[in-house]
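Work Package 4 report. The design task specified in the project plan requires that, given a folded chain encoded as C-alpha cells, an amino acid be chosen for each position. We show below one input record used in the internal validation round.
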C-alpha cells in the first residue's frame, strides 16, 4: 500500500495498521500520538532521537540557524502582506500563518539559546552516552 500524496504520514500509518492488525483506529491513534509526543519531548532534551524503522533525527545547530532565518523572512513577508490590506479571507489565513511561524520561531530560538548556554557545537555529531 503506497501513501497517497494527499494523506499525512500519521493518517497513513493509522489506516495501514488498522487494516493490517485489525485494531480499532482510536487505539492506534492513541499509540501513535503517544510515540510522537515522546519523540518530541526527547528531541527537546537531546540532540538526537532514533525511531526504529524510521531513522535517526539529529538537531544540527548550523541548519537550525538557517531554518530560523527562513522562518523570520517568511514572518516578515506575511506581516508586510497583512499591512497592505488583503481580503478578509486572506487576512484570516495570514494571521493563522503568522501564529504558526511565531511559535516555530520561538521554539527554534529557545533551543538555540539552550545550545549556546551549554557552549556545545558538535557539528551535528552525537555525544556518546555512558550506557
Amino acid at each position: 500500500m503506497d501513501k497517497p500524496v494527499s494523506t499525512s504520514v500519521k493518517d497513513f500509518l493509522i489506516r495501514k495498521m488498522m487494516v493490517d492488525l485489525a485494531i480499532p483506529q482510536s487505539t492506534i491513534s492513541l499509540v501513535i500520538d503517544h510515540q510522537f509526543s515522546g519523540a518530541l519531548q526527547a528531541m527537546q532534551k537531546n540532540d538526537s532521537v532514533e525511531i526504529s524503522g524510521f531513522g535517526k533525527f539529529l538537531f544540527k545547530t548550523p541548519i537550525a540557524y538557517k531554518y530560523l532565518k527562513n522562518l523570520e523572512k517568511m514572518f516578515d513577508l506575511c506581516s508586510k502582506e497583512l499591512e497592505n490590506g488583503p481580503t478578509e479571507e486572506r487576512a484570516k489565513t495570514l494571521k493563522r500563518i503568522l501564529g504558526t511561524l511565531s511559535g516555530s520561531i520561538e521554539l527554534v530560538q529557545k533551543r538555540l539559546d539552550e545550545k549556546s548556554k551549554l557552549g556545545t557545537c558538535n557539528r551535528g555529531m552525537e555525544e556518546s552516552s555512558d550506557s
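The first helix runs from residue 9 to 21. Validation will be extended to a larger panel in the next phase.
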